[in-house]
TrEMBL record, chain A:
It comes from Glycine max. Transmembrane segments: none annotated. This is MAGE domain-containing protein. InterPro entries: MAGE (IPR037445), MAGE_WH1 (IPR041898), MAGE_WH2 (IPR041899), MHD_dom (IPR002190). GO terms for cellular component: nucleus. It comes from the Eukaryota.
From TrEMBL, chain B:
This is Non-structural maintenance of chromosomes element 1 homolog. It comes from Glycine max. Pfam families: SMC_Nse1, zf-RING-like. Residues 203-246 form the Non-structural maintenance of chromosomes element 1 RING C4HC3-type domain. Its EC number is 2.3.2.27. Residues 257-353 are annotated as: Disordered. It catalyses: S-ubiquitinyl-[E2 ubiquitin-conjugating enzyme]-L-cysteine + [acceptor protein]-L-lysine = [E2 ubiquitin-conjugating enzyme]-L-cysteine + N(6)-ubiquitinyl-[acceptor protein]-L-lysine. Belongs to the NSE1 family. The lineage of its organism: Eukaryota, Viridiplantae, Streptophyta, Embryophyta, Tracheophyta. One of its GO terms (molecular function) is zinc ion binding. Component of the Smc5-Smc6 complex.
Length: 236, 353
């Protein structure tokens, strides 16, 4: 049934099943390679659209190819190709939201659909697991600050963990500032510069990756677990 | 869809993509853990499992394949890209000079006429990247970067050293504790077609590229055989220890480390489905290094017959496979070098007949 629908859908664009499969395969490869190259930074929908429109100009064809690639990535690799809506810093949200079209602010990331315990046992790469821990700690700090924190306050918290912004050879993270900047590129955090009476202040806010449902839920669980651990330690 | 993949297939695919190649032993353990079936006694079930994965992966030009680490004869599995297109060029964090450096190292390793498939770190760091200019310029022609050759020339020693460690970390190369660079698992997996397309001499027994192999002592004979294929040929088939081609005596001794391990089937049991890769690369000029040290020169100089075997005991520095630590990759007792060009001509002639 689904195959029949798919065939009908693509026949209206005047391309064969082989051409369609080739486009879908190319988009899958692009998602996988780009995700690896950019360490999981979201990939803009516009980039994916251009993969199709450089050779085909049928309207709505990119949407069908993207949806087909989503299904294939899930079916073959067990990855969810999750769509994110790019968020704006809070101080700019009102002025720019009307000007920026919705399509331009969509991006995609790949998330494993395996259960967490299976993922941790078989898939987690020990060479990069420390970055996940770093990510969760930083996001939790910003979360506890109400989703937005002045830059200086954030670095103050990080220094208490031995992570200085000038540290360039941390035994685990290497260049701490670079590891932190990667969180911005990966859209866990976003930077917001606000003009105030005392001059410019830089804030960090949670971005769409951190605000995404499952991630947000996991942050809450993680924080409550830390609080419980501290409570039990205090009691002992 | 009759060939639907379930979460168990996804675990294997994602594990290989995320963590890199797995030894056959580890993959079998994972398979048994996931399916509660023994891949040793139910081999057909395991093969069907892999085949189903490969049918699905082919839609995006990937393949789960097996390869043999030619230094220890162990079988490893990995997921590789089978088509070289503009998308796959995105799939790397390495810069253009880093890739050129990797290519220079690979060429130095595979062109070793004594088939030891190794070079010293110092030798690698002194490799010139000038021979890579053509390849790099061609691949970057669309990007119109006239400064690429300059970037290669400016690639510093410390940058090479940093790149070397990254390549080892990512398993493209392997670095022993005594500073010898060898091919990594990912190179064996990914470069299989490149080995064939560049007409590298192949093993007389299994017909795969004989990069790390033992050479026939007859200077006029071109036969080379992997160490694990020699073991299979002489010990398991109980044939006379002579060259299968010219009949010259072949002094074969069982390496001490290998004698202790259980004899098992060395033939890869990966998927039967082979997706032919269309990657072709032009062979660059040989890398000539005038700064080879005296020790290296005795080992690497192709025009000189070596009177001594490689005395180095190569210890494998792979923390993830500690169970392999006992298997030393000791070299053949004696190796014979011959002129690479002569061998190539002779082999080509042999193929015409």
């Amino acid at each position: 049934m689904r195959m029949a629908n798919a065939a009908e859908d693509f026949s209206q664009f005047g391309i064969s099943k082989e051409e369609k499969d080739k486009l879908v395969g190319e988009l899958i490869r692009y998602m996988l390679f780009k995700t690896h190259q950019n360490s999981g930074c979201p990939i803009k929908r516009e980039e994916l659209t251009q993969l199709v429109t450089k050779n085909y100009h049928q309207r709505n064809l990119p949407t069908f190819v993207i949806n087909e690639a989503k299904e294939k990535l899930s079916f073959v690799f067990g990855y969810e190709m999750r769509e994110l809506q790019r968020t704006q810093p809070s101080s700019k949200a009102r002025t720019q939201s009307s000007q920026q079209s919705v399509a331009d602010s969509k991006s995609y990331i790949l998330i494993s659909q395996l259960p967490p315990n299976v993922y941790e046992k078989y898939v987690v790469d020990v060479n990069t697991a420390h970055l996940s821990g770093f990510t969760f700690v930083i996001i939790s700090i910003v979360y506890l600050a109400g989703g937005k924190i002045p830059e200086e306050n954030l670095w103050s918290q990080m220094r208490r963990m031995g992570l200085g912004e000038t540290e360039s050879s941390h035994p685990v993270l290497g260049n701490v500032k670079q590891a932190f900047e990667l969180l911005v590129q990966q859209r866990y955090l976003q930077k917001d510069k606000v003009n105030g009476p005392e001059g410019n202040t830089v804030y960090y806010e949670l971005a769409e990756r951190a605000l995404d449902g499952p991630m947000n839920d996991r942050i809450k669980e993680y924080i409550s677990q830390i609080v419980q651990d501290n409570t039990s330690v205090g009691a002992a | 869809m009759s060939s639907a993949l379930n979460w168990r297939h996804h675990v294997v695919i994602q594990s290989l993509l995320s963590r890199g190649p797995l030894s056959e032993k580890d993959l079998h353990a994972m398979f048994q853990d996931l399916t509660k079936r023994n891949p040793g006694t139910e081999r057909q079930l395991f093969d069907s499992f892999i085949l189903k994965i490969n049918k699905a992966l082919s839609c995006a030009n990937f393949e789960l394949r097996a390869c043999i680490d030619q230094y220890d004869g162990q079988v490893y599995y990995g997921v590789v890209n089978t088509v070289s297109d503009e998308h796959s060029k995105l799939g790397t964090k390495y810069t253009v000079p880093q890739i050129a450096f990797y290519k220079a190292i690979i060429e130095a390793i595979v062109q070793d006429a004594s088939a030891n498939a190794a070079i010293f770190s110092i030798h690698a760091l002194n490799l010139s990247l000038d021979s890579q200019v053509t390849i790099v310029t061609d691949s970057q022609s669309q990007g119109s970067q006239p400064n690429v050759p300059t970037a290669l020339k400016n690639f510093s020693l410390s940058q090479k050293e940093k790149t070397l460690h990254e390549l080892v970390r990512d398993q493209w190369l392997d670095l022993t504790t005594d500073g010898v660079i060898r091919l990594g698992l990912k190179s064996f997996l990914d470069l299989r077609s490149w080995f064939r397309n560049n007409d590298l001499p192949s093993c007389h027994v299994c017909n795969e590229a004989g990069i790390k192999a033992e050479l026939c002592q007859n200077e006029n004979c071109t036969v080379r055989i992997h160490h694990y294929c020699l073991k299979q040929l002489f010990l398991q088939r109980k044939v006379a220890e002579v060259c299968p081609s010219c009949g010259t005596s072949w002094p074969y001794t069982v390496p001490k480390a290998e004698a202790e391990q259980t004899e098992d089937d060395n033939e890869p049991r990966g998927s039967k489905q082979v997706i032919k890769s269309e990657r072709k690369r032009r062979r660059a000029n040989r890398v000539v290094d005038d700064e080879v040290g005296s020790n290296n020169q005795d080992e690497l100089n192709e025009s000189r017959e070596s009177q001594h075997g490689n005395g180095l005991v190569q210890k494998r520095g792979r923390p993830r496979r500690s169970d392999d630590a006992d298997i030393g990759g000791s070299d053949a007792s004696q190796s014979l070098t011959a002129i690479s060009d002569a061998r190539r001509v002779t082999r080509s002639s042999a193929r015409l007949s």
